[in-house]
Amino acid sequence: MLKAVLFDWGGTLMQDEWSDDIALEGYAAGLSAIPGDHLPDAQALLRYFQDNSEQLFSLDDLDEIDIAAVMGSGFTHHGADLPDDHIRLFLTASHDVFASYYSLASTTHALLEALRRRGLKLALVSNTASPEWLLRPVLERQGLVERLDAVVLSSELGKRKPHPAMFEQALAEVGAVPAEALFVGDRLDADILGASRVGIKTVQALWFRADDAEVPVEPDFQAFTQMDVLNAVERLSPGHDDSRASSRR
Prior knowledge:
By secondary structure, the chain is an alpha/beta fold.
């Protein structure tokens, strides 16, 4: 019996934009929040992060990066060793800008509420370098905290999807085993592959993007709108055939 539905965040419950212009806007806001002189400008920081992206943002081993250390290295490179509290000021102000480009899908609340009415536990399982203290206010403003039973962030766990620890932690927090859960996400590698390897049935979210990465598994379901997720939930309810072969749309 289905007991829980686990969701990815960016690309699934919300759409998040990113570009060099957004990065520059965020870095400029972060710099303005730091007292003192002799700081690099936003363009210099962006250039440093881009030139050293392979080293600074490597995710090959599925270990989450330490975003405070990465940002701090940008200042150190330009001769400004900032104390931890100044790095925190920079992160807070810059993330406020980045979060302003997050757009919750119009039916996210309706979907979560429909699932809760069915008695299902709900969890967010997100890859993010941003720490919980930065993201919690965003989740609250989006109305997600009050509709979720658990939030699992790679920045807190130290591992990124598709590492099994992310899914196992979410299952533990909602009190379900893999056979009792459904995972909804847009990325075939991080979301569908990761959840499938743990034994969780999956829904590929297609309402924002259609990922075509080559992975050795297929989603159990595909959803072209958020409310299509309810169809997958119904198929996994007692009395419905939940076999992998017949359930893909």
